[in-house]
Amino acid sequence: MSATTSSARGIPGASKDLNVARALGRRRHLTNTIVKVACIAATVLGMVLLASILLSLIWRGAAGISLTVFTHNTKPPGSGGGLLNAIVGTLIQTVIGTAVGTPIGLMVGTYLAEYGRGSPLANTVRFVSDILLSAPSILIGLFVYEIAVEPFGGFSGIAGCIALAIIVIPIVVRTTEDMLSLITPALREAAIGLGAPKYKVIVQICYRSAMDGIVTGVLLAVARIAGETAPLLFTSLGNLNWSISLGQPMASLPVTIYQYAGSAFEDWVQLAWVGALLITFGVLAINIAARLLLRRGK
Question: Which of 17, 37, 62 lies at the terminal end of a domain, its last residue?
Answer without folding.
Answer: 62
